[in-house]
Write a structure and sequence with these properties.
155 residues, alpha/beta, 6 strands
Length: 155
Amino acid sequence: CLSDWSSDVCSSDLKTLLKPVKRFLRDQGCVFLRPELRFFDRGIDLYALAHEPDHSYAIELKVVDWQKALRQAAIYQLCADFCYVAMPIEHTTRVNLDNFRHAGVGLLGVYLGGNFVTEVLAPKASAVKNQFYSRSIQQSFESLGRRKVNAIRSS
């Protein structure tokens, strides 16, 4: 997560992934985006809501450790319709796409120099999404208040 990096990964590397991934989510119709959303003892790096169609997205940002990212993103299927791992495009060639397909998790490759994202693998719609978890997360968005939500929308 953005606030809990291992010592070998620089925080600026993960922050660099965030901006193009936000743009990708807005292109998917997301209007509310929230970084660092708490989900039990974990932090979802980026959670987003789209209203048309009504979908939720959870994104795990990782620089290199795709196995850990895949485990985390698979857990987030409990609270999101679609889950992705986002990492620099040059690291996506080392990923076992069969593991991602089996888990139903998508993969985003981020071109850091060009500041854009390509969908390497589309996610499957979550088959384990729990309404209790997703409702509580949507309520956390509503509790942000109008001013804070507008600030998130414009960032």
